[in-house]
């Protein structure tokens, strides 16, 4: 009986281990070949399995990946949620289990509708179904497109596909490579290994293609990293010490074109500190500089906004309190900035009443921020992970992608490093440098190829000075977005469905 139980469990156990190892392909480890090896082994484990058994194998793979890959989420729940340890672990288990449903769905769909060992299963159905399940995870319940496999490839030749089709095209390339390898191993038809070789060779070749061109004009930035303790940030007695700390750090950097404070750097509603902001605006104007900061705003009724404010040399005459002229965060973080089913959940635990957990969403597309004549497309913290939203807000006048963040919620974990990796992918996709200002790291600047050119150490107070070239031109992904991949997916599935009853070992 024990032998029989082990026989049934070895595939899910192996899948969980392989899923967990996938985390090492992402930052900070960056062992990118693991992102290809992991789905190879998963597809081998799914071979000749029933749809039900496949579902559990895929679910186990997802448990392994997300239990390790987003373990940092538990820090915010445990440290700031005010819940007993057992309750925070239970909530984390629910989150990981929910995310594991998507690889489970992938495995079930693949073996339910395309069970035969065939080329159309491996080269059409398997890669496209993976992409579809990724899209679903990035859309349902506002979406959580974290740990898409494509993000792991920033240091591999496959990264060069990003300007063509974004992180999704890289993910598709990974899955086609993985499918070719697993198909070759199952059929012993080793000529199919030419496919990943061609894909990687194409990636090498694309490195020589320059979709955008750096401009001669240089912008001097000063990014202020305040390193404010998250536990103290919203304590009323710490309001002015925090504001004055950012002001003091900025005073010696008025020679910069643009000074940037991080997300919600000002721990107060904008209307409460409008006199201070007017003085700061005058100081910036007197020095022919601009200052950008995150701030919280209150609208009519119970509307609250996570906003970005620009002072000094802007397209406005002088500072005026008018929240209609601010950038307001559109894509809010579930539970952190809004609570789904709040009438049911808020009474259950203090975690569901974290500070500022009742924000209102801004528009999907908003005007670029203009600071000293430069146009910046903002993405507040969590928003940077939504590639289509960032693409929609980058226009022909955009010089830089601006992202303000506060990852202090996640302590000394891998979460902020993964967050930075995602921001780097946005730069590569859209051919625009990313300017990233955070409370305690990673505060950094990338070039238009997504490579970090300047950064501050984490968990230190400091100022990052950087001179950055903006770019002209447009990447194909900026122009087309994901529509070519959507059309390809429909066509590929249609062909695979038509041939699903055939076998071609």
Keywords:
globular, Nitrilase/N-carbamoyl-D-aminoacid amidohydrolase, 15 helices, 505 residues, 6-stranded mixed β-sheet
Which term fits the overall shape? globular
**What structural class do you assign from the helix and strand content?**
alpha/beta
What is the first-to-last residue Cα distance? Answer: 35 Å
* CATH A-level architecture of the largest domain: 4-Layer Sandwich
What oligomeric assembly is this protein in? single chain
Low-pLDDT sequence parts: 1-5
- Kindly report the CATH topology of the largest domain: Nitrilase/N-carbamoyl-D-aminoacid amidohydrolase
Subcellular location: Cell membrane
EC number: 2.3.1.269
Keywords: Acyltransferase, Cell membrane, Lipoprotein, Membrane, Transferase, Transmembrane, Transmembrane helix
Main location: membrane
Give the arrangement of secondary structure elements.
Blueprint: H1 2-21, H2 34-46, H3 51-69, H4 73-80, H5 85-113, H6 119-137, H7 162-187, H8 194-206, E1 212-225, H9 239-251, E2 258-260, E3 266-269, H10 274-286, E4 290-298, E5 304-312, E6 327-328, H11 342-345, E7 369-371, E8 374-378, H12 387-393, E9 400-405, H13 415-430, E10 434-438, E11 444-446, E12 452-455, E13 462-473, H14 476-480, H15 483-498
Parallel strand pairs: 1-2, 2-4, 3-4, 8-9, 9-10
Antiparallel strand pairs: 1-13, 4-5, 5-6, 7-8, 10-11, 11-12
Helix pairs in contact: 1-2, 1-3, 2-7, 3-5, 4-5, 5-6, 6-7, 6-15, 7-8, 7-13
What does this structure look like?
The protein has 505 residues and is α/β, with parallel strands linked by helices. The protein has 2 domains: 2-209 and 482-498, no CATH class; 214-474, Carbon-nitrogen hydrolase (Nitrilase/N-carbamoyl-D-aminoacid amidohydrolase). It contains 15 helices and 13 strands. The strands form 2 sheets. Strands 1, 2, 3, 4, 5, 6 and 13 form a 7-stranded mixed beta sheet that branches. α3 runs antiparallel to α5 (85-113) and α5 (85-113) runs antiparallel to α6. The longest helix has 29 residues, at 85-113.
């Amino acid at each position: 009986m024990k032998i029989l139980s082990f026989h049934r469990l070895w595939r899910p156990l192996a899948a969980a281990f392989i899923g967990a190892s996938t985390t090492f392909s992402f930052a900070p480890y960056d062992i990118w070949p693991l992102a290809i090896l992991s789905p190879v082994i998963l597809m081998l484990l799914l071979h000749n399995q029933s749809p039900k058994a496949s579902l559990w194998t895929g679910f186990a793979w997802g448990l392994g990946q997300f239990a390790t890959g987003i373990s940092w989420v538990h820090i915010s729940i445990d440290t700031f949620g005010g819940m007993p340890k057992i309750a925070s672990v239970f909530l984390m288990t629910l989150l990981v289990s929910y995310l594991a449903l998507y690889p489970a769905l992938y495995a079930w769909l693949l073996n339910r509708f395309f069970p035969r060992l065939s080329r159309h299963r491996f080269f059409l159905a398997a890669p496209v179904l993976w992409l579809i399940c990724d899209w679903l995870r990035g859309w349902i319940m506002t979406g959580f497109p974290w740990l898409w496999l494509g993000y792991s490839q920033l240091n591999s030749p496959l990264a060069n596909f990003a300007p063509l089709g974004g992180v999704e095209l890289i993910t598709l390339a990974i899955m086609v490579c993985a499918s070719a390898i697993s198909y070759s191993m199952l059929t012993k038809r080793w000529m199919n290994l030419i496919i990943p070789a061609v894909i990687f060779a194409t990636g090498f070749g694309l490195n020589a293609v320059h979709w955008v061109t750096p401009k001669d004009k240089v912008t001097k930035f000063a990014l202020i990293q305040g390193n404010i303790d998250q536990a103290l940030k919203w304590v009323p007695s710490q309001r002015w010490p925090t504001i004055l700390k950012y002001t003091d750090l900025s005073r010696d950097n008025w020679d910069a074109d643009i000074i940037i404070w991080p997300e919600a750097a000002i721990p107060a509603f904008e209307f409460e500190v409008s006199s201070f902001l007017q003085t700061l605006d005058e100081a910036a104007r007197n020095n022919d500089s601009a200052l950008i900061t995150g701030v919280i705003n209150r609208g009519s009724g119970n509307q609250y906004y996570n906003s970005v404010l620009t002072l000094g040399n802007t397209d406005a005459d002088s500072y005026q309190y008018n929240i209609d002229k601010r950038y307001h965060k559109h894509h809010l973080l579930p539970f952190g900035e809004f609570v789904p089913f709040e009438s049911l959940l808020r009474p259950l635990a203090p975690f569901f009443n974290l500070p500022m957990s009742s924000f209102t969403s801004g528009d999907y597309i908003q005007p670029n921020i203009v600071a000293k004549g430069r146009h910046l497309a903002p993405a507040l913290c969590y928003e940077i992970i939504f590639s289509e939203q960032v693409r929609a807000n980058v226009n022909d006048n955009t010089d830089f992608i601006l992202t303000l963040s506060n990852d202090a919620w996640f302590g000394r974990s891998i979460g902020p490093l993964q967050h930075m990796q995602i921001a780097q992918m946005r730069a590569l996709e859209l051919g625009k440098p990313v300017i990233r200002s955070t409370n305690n790291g990673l505060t950094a600047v990338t070039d238009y190829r997504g490579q970090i050119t300047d950064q501050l150490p984490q968990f230190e107070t400091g100022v990052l000075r950087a001179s950055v070239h903006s770019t002209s031109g447009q990447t194909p992904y900026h122009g087309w977005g994901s529509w070519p991949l959507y059309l390809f997916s429909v066509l590929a599935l249609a062909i695979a469905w038509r041939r699903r009853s055939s076998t071609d070992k």
